[in-house]
Amino acid sequence: MRQLNLLSYNVQAGIYSRQYSDYLTNSWKHLLPHPERLVNLSRIAQVLRQFDLVGLQEIDAGSLRSNNIDQVQYLARLGSFPHCYRQINRNLGPFARHSNGLLSRLRPARIVEHRLPGLPGRGAVTAEYPLSNGEHLAVAIVHLALGWRARRRQLDYLACLAEQHPLMVVMGDFNCGCDSKGLNNMVRKAGMRGLDCELKTFPSWRPRHNLDHILISRPLKLVSARVIDYALSDHLPLSMTIELPDGVRFAETIPSARPAPVSTASSS
């Protein structure tokens, strides 16, 4: 097995957004539970089932607003992912537990949490997958700051992290587009690729900005990339299929029998 189907998705804690006014009318859902949330997460799970590895942002690890349900575990169960992990970046006690999430069909050999520079509340989680040549593929899931100063420091941190892993994927909500100087510097310094200005993910109801990215080390082959037109959050999910270098395979075989996918439209 040499190919891996990736998905990055900011799920907005399961809140369904259709228009800008929903940020105001749905603001209470960021604090209190609502039955629509589980229905929306169940729909999201139908998309996730098509992929081998999923990175989630703005996922709740179990609090009042999620009805004390760990949303990472919930999506892992519905999507039939045998391995999952959540990194809590902003813990507001019983009210909210803002997290990054990992869903995987492969078993990671190691998982490392990183606290990103800037104000508390931003992190990256890295999963390492062993390869047949004794090396590993590192996959980092990130959610970067809104402010450009903190985001620039975080991008510098990610560039240094990528230098430690010859084969690496960095994916998530970068909160900046392909015209960002800091993002382009990070990509150039780390020797990565994958920036595509046409892959617009935000807002989901009228995507005009490419805030979500999947970046890969140059030894990895980019087979395909697309935005999935499945507007359940305020972001659209971004997918990519990658391939390992010639002669290299995953040490563990990805199960060939994935759950049946749903039909979705795509744009790229």
TrEMBL record:
One Pfam family cited in the UniProt record for this chain: Exo_endo_phos
Keyword Nuclease recorded: yes
Gene Ontology cellular component terms for the protein in this record: membrane
Domain Endonuclease/exonuclease/phosphatase: 7-235
Keywords: Endonuclease, Exonuclease, Hydrolase, Nuclease
GO biological process, one term: GPI anchor biosynthetic process
InterPro entries: Endo/exonu/phosph_ase_sf (IPR036691), Endo/exonuclease/phosphatase (IPR005135), GPI-anchor_lipid_remodeler (IPR051916)
GO molecular function, one term: endonuclease activity
Protein name (database record): Endonuclease/exonuclease/phosphatase
Lineage start: Bacteria, Pseudomonadati, Pseudomonadota, Gammaproteobacteria, Chromatiales
